[in-house]
Prior knowledge:
- The protein is mainly alpha-helical.
- The protein has a single domain (11-207), classed as Up-down Bundle (Four Helix Bundle (Hemerythrin (Met), subunit A)), CATH 1.20.120.
- It has 7 helices and no strands.
- Helix 1 packs antiparallel against helix 2, helix 2 (43-68) packs antiparallel against helix 3 and helix 3 (74-98) crosses helix 5.
- The longest helix is centred in the last third of the chain and has 32 residues, at 169-200.
- It starts with 10 loop residues before the first helix and ends with a helix.
Amino acid sequence: xxxxxxxxxxxxxxxxxxxxxxxxxxxxxxxxxxxxxxxxxxxxxxxxxxxxxxxxxxxxxxxxxxxxxxxxxxxxxxxxxxxxxxxxxxxxxxxxxxxxxxxxxxxxxxxxxxxxxxxxxxxxxxxxxxxxxxxxxxxxxxxxxxxxxxxxxxxxxxxxxxxxxxxxxxxxxxxxxxxxxxxxxxxxxxxxxxxxxxxxxxxxxxxx
Length: 208
């Protein structure tokens, strides 16, 4: 029995579309300076962390909705990883420009994404679909977590400098170290998941 046709305009795809649309808004909020020079009263960074958190949550919810409501579509399967990459890569570019993240982290991320994209396109030409592995899912979780954590630290800095919240600098340093650890773990998962993809599909490289 054929599966009923699923409308592409469904809740799961709308959540994914929200994640894509949130990226330029988050970037604008990160770069805006609504207060005095510096971070005093820079509430855009505070708003950015809430929007990024909402976007990160939709990364989990959209897939859950698609499976439970049986509204999985080819468009959704295409847009979901695209939304993740737009969110993570765009914000990491800004983090590198701000000096928050080392440049080599972004280079490793981009190399991994482009190499896996090439493998995915090569497999697609043979009619095969490269699904997300468990390592890749962990990679996405830690990358999105790193984005939210870094934005949270920046928001706490704004609140502390603006005297809207009392935060000990020792606590800020502790949070910053947690961010560094999450970023490093995300890089590890990025490398491992990329190597796994090519190892599992090594026959493609042998065949040429």
